[in-house]
Specification:
transmembrane, five-stranded mixed sheet, cell membrane, Biopolymer transporter ExbD, elongated, membrane, 141 residues, alpha/beta, Nucleotidyltransferase, domain 5, single chain
Length: 141
């Protein structure tokens, strides 16, 4: 009486597929954790965001108007300024006045950002405290 105990040749085959069930379980848990924690991270600090607005400003005689044309030329009122160093020297002379005048920057729509940035940097170097940008109001249709 012989009895065969063990496995047959069909059961001895090696399984070559990867079991992805644990991987899917871990990914679903991570997804749920991120979905719960992201809104808390984004809104944990109360911040008052700026709103877009247009202010009507009165043009005071003591305010300084600096303009930039489309080619990057700098103008002090209507007089052309040779370079930013000359602009800084002019701004330093008016920065010592009390009260200090505002600088209103008028930039052409097609002017390069660099040209307007040079004016802002010149105002910073001269010690000007308040800079405003003059724009046209939006067209309402």
């Amino acid at each position: 009486m012989a009895m065969s105990v063990g496995s047959s040749s069909e059961e001895d085959e090696v399984v070559s597929t990867i079991n992805t069930t644990p991987l899917v379980d871990v990914m679903l848990v991570l997804l749920i954790i991120f979905l719960i924690t992201i809104p808390v991270v984004n809104y944990s600090i109360a911040v008052s965001l700026p709103k877009e607005r247009n202010e009507v400003r009165e043009s005071k005689p003591e305010n300084i108007v600096v303009s930039v044309d489309a080619k990057g030329g700098i103008y002090w009122y209507d007089a052309k300024v040779a370079n930013t160093e000359q602009l800084v020297e002019r701004l330093k002379k008016v920065a010592v006045k009390n009260p200090q005048p505002e600088v209103h920057v008028r930039g052409d729509l097609t002017a390069q950002y660099d040209s307007v940035g040079k004016i802002v940097y010149a105002c910073q170097r001269a010690g000007i405290a308040k800079i405003s940008f003059i724009t046209e109001p939006p067209v309402r249709s």
